[in-house]
Structure formats: C-alpha cells, structure tokens
Amino acid sequence: MPTLALISRDSNLYQELVRTLEGTAWSVEWLGPEAVDDSEIHQEVVVLDAAHPEMEAWRTHRGKPVLLIVAEDRPVGLNEVVDDLLFRPARQEELLVRLERLRARTPLNDLRRQHAKTFASMAPGIVVVGPDLTMVFANPRSYEIVGHREETISSDDLRRVVSLEDLPRVRDALSEKQYPRGMDIELVRRDGTKIICSSSFAPLIGAEDHTVISFEDVTDLRETERELIKTMEFLESLIDASVDAIIATDMEQRVVLFNPSAERISGRHVSDVLGHVKLEDLLGRSSSELVTQRLLAADHGGEGRLEPTMLDLIDLHGARIPVQLSASLIYEHGEPSAIVLIFADLRDRIRVEERLAEAQKKLAFTEEQGVLAELAGTAAHELNQPLTSMMAYAELLLRQSEPGSTGAKTAGVLIREAERMAEIVRKIGKITRYETTAYVGHQKIFDLDRAADASNDPGAKS
C-alpha cells in the first residue's frame, strides 16, 4: 500500500487528507512538526504544509518527491525541494493524479531537479541516454558542442549525432553494459560538420537501463596529436636513414637513442645499448670528458655546441675507429636535458686519402722518370757528337803513327776509352727509370746497367 508522509502542525489538514483518500490504496502518516529534519522518511511521497513555519528551511537528501499543500488565500513560495503543489481543499481525483505522478517519478527526474544547476555549469557535455538510444536529458554544454537546441537534442536519439562509422561501437557498448572511459567518438553537428569527442560512459544510479555519457570536443587536440606523430615519424625516419651515426644520451650520459648507422659503425645492437651503455663506453673516459667540457665551453663552436672534432669510437670488440664527431646540448625550460652526437666514419676517407697520396707519389715518381729519360736522351745526343770527333782523330793518329810507337799506343788507349765512353752514352740514352746502387759507405750512385736493362724488360716494375 502506498503511503504519504504529512509534515504539518495542522491536525485539520491530516483529517482532510485522510477523508479525501478514503477508499483508495493510499494511506496517510502524520509525522508532525518534529519530522522537518527527519532523515528516516521511508514513505513514497512527502506532503508538506505550506503553512508550516519551518517549511522554507526544510531540505531533503533522500530524493523523495515533495507535494506542497497551499491554502488558496495564501501566496505560494516554492523552494528547490518541491516537485508539485496542490491548493486546499483538494479533490480526491486531483490528489490521486498528483500522488501517482510523483510516485512514478524516475531517477532521471531527480537528476534534473537536484543537479540541473551543477550540470549546467560543467565544461563537458552531458547526456542521458535511454535503452532505446533516445537522449532524454542534455546539459547546455552539450547543445553547444553538437550545435543543437535544447528542445531538439532531448527529443533525438544518438543516431542523429553519432557518425555511422562509430555508431556500432557505441550501440555495442550500451547493449553489453560496457562503460568505456576516454573513448574517441566522431559526432556529427547539426550543420553536418564532424568533430571528435572524448567520451566516458556510466550507468545512471537507480535507473541502470539509462546511461550517462560525458564528452568534450578534442578535434583540435587530436589534429595536433596527428601532426606531432607525423612529424615524429618523419624525424625518426630521417634519423634512421642518416649515413652518419646519431646518438643521444641523457645528462648522465646514458644512451637513449642509437640509429642504424651507429649500429653498423660500432658493431653494437641497439637493444644492447639503450639504457645499458654510457658515452664513456663508446669514446673512452678521457674523450667523453673532453666532449662534455667542450660542450659547456664557448670556444669550440659556441656554448652547448661542439664543432667537428677528430676522435676514436670504440667498437664492440674494443677496436678504435677514427670518426669525426660533432655534438650539441638539447635544452628544456632553459636547462640542458640531453646530448646529441653525430659521428662520421673516417675509415673509408682515410683509405681514400692514403690511396690518393700513394697515387700522387707514383705520379711524382713517373714525372721524375720522364724528366730523367728526357735528360738522358739529351745528354746522350749531346755527348755523341764530341765523342765521334774524338774517336775519328784518335783513329787518324793511330794510322799516322809507327806500329809499336808511343803515339800508336796513345792512340790505341784513346780509341779504347772512347769506345767505352760510347757504350756509356748508349746506356744513358736507354735510361727510362731511376735505379741506384751502393757506393762508398752509405752513398748511392746511379746504376746505369740496371736502368738500361730495365728499359729493355717490359715486365720491369718501378
């Protein structure tokens, strides 16, 4: 049997309500004036006498519906706990309608009545959705977010505001009594534009078939996140594609970034380096201290920067690899937070420089050989003319002298030595390379025989 609780000092009002409800399912319990602050009211409906001197001070925290009984000749003053009012004397039919309506009140009515001001001041949009996906309540912020008016949003269902792509996720969550937090949902505004909202779901206490959804527009935030992710992925690809080794450490010099080129040059795998290897393990203690000191000084590229410097990188097996290193400090809020180092492997460059130096040396030697050959040819040509004349005069002197005479012997010596000189000139004319032989002590002299023989040997090497 439904019961109403009467809070009044007027016994006549109690008798009046008893007579009016006689023959109905309702009964009346008179709580008397002391029940104004009673927290144990268990009746379905509370009837409050407007003439009660403490009526304005009465508050309820139990969510009980309140019917105010007002005399027709008195002004009506409603406070925030009153749900309905009735003028005395009350007719049975009218009183029953009001009592049944108050008794059938849902938790959603409590939500509107008790928390409307709170919800109105909240930054997120808040809607209450029934089991048929109809939005039965919405706060003002939700109108702004989805671009609807109050009278239209509260009469629509979620299918009008949730995009077709995300509607199945929302429907499944509601049907399976799942209450996700921070789920991104794409909503369609009244003008057709789409926005992304971060939404959280919760059951409506006392009416668990209804769901409270709070949401806020995060479209700009998600766009910024996408741009940041895109930029980060681009920078990561750029670092990974670099032919130079790129390494980053924290201010305790623990490695926090190690790109593929650093793996290739050092022979270390990134999984073995990150969080386990320090800068001094890669450079040696003295070199790592040198890098740190120069980064903090202003004489090597500016404070926080280190201009290219030749150092050795220690590989996995302890071997030293010549590299060119440049470095810089990364600052956050004006304080250094990380060190970025770029290494260029110099081994190939050094090998190329060595080969170039060798080629230049050979080229210089070849040029010297060419000059020597030209000089030898010129000398041979110039010596042949006076030598020919000398031999001719010696032979003339030999013919004019008596056999066995001193003049004949002298002429013979001149001819023999001239022929010897002619052989030397011939060898000089064949010189194409520089060959020496040991002489007295540590001195060396030109070896004509080897130089001349080498010119006749096509397989000779310089």
CATH topology of the largest domain: Beta-Lactamase
- Fraction of residues in β-strands: 15-25%
Q: How much helix, percentage-wise, in residues?
A: 40-55%
**How would a textbook summarize the main sheet?**
5 strands, parallel
With helices defined by DSSP (H or I, 4 residues minimum), what is the helix count?
A: 14
SSE-based structural type: alpha+beta
How many angstroms does the end-to-end distance come to? 125 Å
Q: How would you describe the shape? A: rod-shaped
- Looking at this structure, what is the CATH superfamily of the largest domain? PAS domain
CATH architecture of the largest domain: 2-Layer Sandwich
Q: Tally the beta strands.
A: 17
Lateral arrangement of strands in the main beta sheet: 2-1-3-4-5
Uncertain runs are none
Instruction: Round the mean pLDDT to the nearest integer and report it.
Output: 81
What's the number of domains? 4
How large is the radius of gyration?
55 Å
Structural description of this entry:
The protein is of the alpha+beta class and 462 residues long. It folds into 4 domains: 3-105, Rossmann fold; 109-221, PAS domain (Beta-Lactamase); 244-345, PAS domain (Beta-Lactamase); 350-456, Helix Hairpins (Orthogonal Bundle), CATH 1.10.287. The protein contains 14 helices and 17 strands. It has helices at 11-20, 92-103, 107-120, 140-146, 150-153, 167-175, 219-241, 260-266, 270-273, 279-283, 285-296, 347-400, 406-429, 448-456; strands at 3-7, 27-30, 45-49, 66-71, 84-88, 125-129, 135-138, 183-188, 194-204, 207-217, 245-250, 255-258, 305-314, 320-332, 335-345, 436-438, 444-446. The strands form 4 sheets. Strands 2-1-3-4-5 form a 5-stranded parallel sheet, covered by helices on one side. Strands 7-6-10-9-8 form a 5-stranded antiparallel sheet, with helices on both faces. Strand 13 (305-314) and strand 14 form a beta hairpin. Helix 12 runs antiparallel to helix 13 (406-429). The longest helix has 54 residues, at 347-400. The protein is rod-shaped and about 190 Å long. It starts with a strand and ends in a 6-residue tail after the last helix. The mean pLDDT is 81.
